[in-house]
Amino acid sequence: MIALSAMMLLPMGTVAQAFNLVQNGGFVPSNIPSGIRSSGINNPASGVIISGWTVTDNPNNVPGFVNNLMYVISDGNTFSQEGGVGMNQWGQNQRKSWTLFNTPGQTVNSVDGSGWYIASDGDPQYSGSISQTLTGLTAGEQYNVSFSQAAGQFNCNFGNISNPSSSCVEGGIYSGATTSRWQVSFGGDTQLSTLMNQASQAPVSDWQSQALSFTATSSTQVLSFLAVGTPGAQPPTALLSGVSVEQVPEPTTIVGSIAAVSFMAKLRSKKKNKK
């Protein structure tokens, strides 16, 4: 009887176990210089590598802008990225920096304690995807893609080199309500996260948990995230943290676990009644 009870309880152990198939779901950079709080991971000149992940530029980017606007940011700040000096599409020399609109003293931290998170422009002209190839999948099985998202709006500090006091000469000061979300692809299936609405120049929103279910069609598939937002000219920004992919337990396993609990309860009841 004891042996039978132990066998029936085995499925419960299976349910309790969860294995994250994603490598470096916290986006920890492996070679970011000491003291740097943020860096463009899309820019080859930065040399920043996030193990396990690949950033792909958007082919729709505006001519003259080689890279998409995606950054890895450390906990405890709302992001300040110096982009250096370069030429815009009108041939103007500019110094470039980005921040996120925020309330005084506001800090933003990763949800999983990794110390880093992603911020990406959702404008289809500047967005790019971050992806990872997952192996060891079982075709026909379901997998939950879980992550946390937040919304923000890029605030620019563009200045013409000949007139350093000028600001945002490319498009004026950004304002206006925005929407943003993540387009998540897993193999051949693509889904959208919950739409996030931001008031004009609002501070970074609170993190919200997301869980999307996909069915694997192969043992190896690509997981990718692409920020999508509106309107394009107002830098709608999506933040990403704590990515995980876990196989959904078999329904029979869950039923077996419930049956095991019920069986043990009946045994205890019988023993009690015999006393």
Can you offer a commentary on this structure?
The longest helix is centred in the C-terminal third of the chain and has 24 residues, at 251-274. The relative contact order is 0.21. The chain has two helices and 15 strands. Strands 1, 3, 4, 5, 6, 8, 9, 13 and 15 form a nine-stranded antiparallel sheet that branches. The radius of gyration is 24 Å and the shape is globular. The protein has helices spanning 2-16, 251-274; strands at 38-40, 54-56, 70-74, 80-87, 93-100, 116-121, 129-134, 142-156, 159-160, 178-186, 189-192, 196-198, 208-215, 221-230, 236-247. It is mainly beta. The two termini are 19 Å apart. Helix content is 14%, strand content 37%.
Sequence-ordered SSE layout with sheet pairings:
Layout: H1 2-16, E1 38-40, E2 54-56, E3 70-74, E4 80-87, E5 93-100, E6 116-121, E7 129-134, E8 142-156, E9 159-160, E10 178-186, E11 189-192, E12 196-198, E13 208-215, E14 221-230, E15 236-247, H2 251-274
Antiparallel strand pairs: 1-3, 2-7, 3-6, 4-5, 5-8, 5-9, 6-15, 7-14, 8-13, 8-15, 10-11, 10-12, 10-14
Helix pairs in contact: 1-2
In short:
With 275 residues, this protein is mostly beta strands. The protein has helices at 2-16, 251-274, and strands at residues 38-40, 54-56, 70-74, 80-87, 93-100, 116-121, 129-134, 142-156, 159-160, 178-186, 189-192, 196-198, 208-215, 221-230, 236-247.
What characterizes the major β-sheet? 9 strands, antiparallel
One letter per element, helices H and strands E, the order comes to HEEEEEEEEEEEEEEEH
What's the total helix number?
Answer: 2
Distance between the termini: 19 Å
Mean pLDDT: 77
Shape: globular
Oligomer: single chain
